[in-house]
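Incident log entry.

Two folding requests arrived from the same account within the same minute. Monitoring flagged them as a possible duplicate submission, but the sequences differ. Recording both here for audit purposes.

Request one:
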Amino acid sequence: MSETIPVSGTCHEQFAQVETAFRSNFAERGEIGARVSVIREGEVIVDLCGGHTSEARDQPWDSGTLPKLGSSPCFGVQKCLLHCFAIGA
C-alpha cells in the first residue's frame, strides 16, 4: 500500500515502539482504522488514532470514532499489553 495513512495523537517517547507498531498495522497488515490508548498510573502515555472508518476510506478515524463490536478480537492484544505493563516489561 503506497497511501500514507493519517495517524494523530500522542505517544510518550519511552513508548515509541507502540507508535511504530501501530503505524505498521496500516502499512504491513492492511489495517483500515484503529485507536489505542494506554493510561499508566493516571497518566495518558499513548493515545493514537488513525486510518479510516470503512474500507471505502471516505471518513478518517478520529478520537470520536466508535469501533464496531466486531473489533473485539483485539481484546487479546489489549490484555497482553496490560500484562506487560503490569509486570514492568
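Request two (distinct sequence, not a duplicate):
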Amino acid sequence: MDRGATFTVPEAYATSESWRAVAARLRREQPVFRVEAADFDPFYALTEHADVSRSSASPSTCRFATDRAEARRRDPWSSCIT
C-alpha cells in the first residue's frame, strides 16, 4: 500500500496496530508529504504533532490550497515546515 493510501483507503484502518506501524515508518522517513489520490483533493499528510501544531498556530503563514490548480502552482508548506 502506498503512503497516501494510509490516509485514504478504509482498509488501512483495519487494525490500529498495522496503521500505527505504517504511521511510525512515515514519521521516520517522510513526516510531511503531499497526497494525490483518486476521489480526494490533494492534501498534505502530517505525521508529527509538532507539524500539526505549527500549521494550526500559523494559518496565515501555512495557507493551504483550496483547489487543485492552486495546489499544483505552489507548495503551501514552504514557509512553515523547516
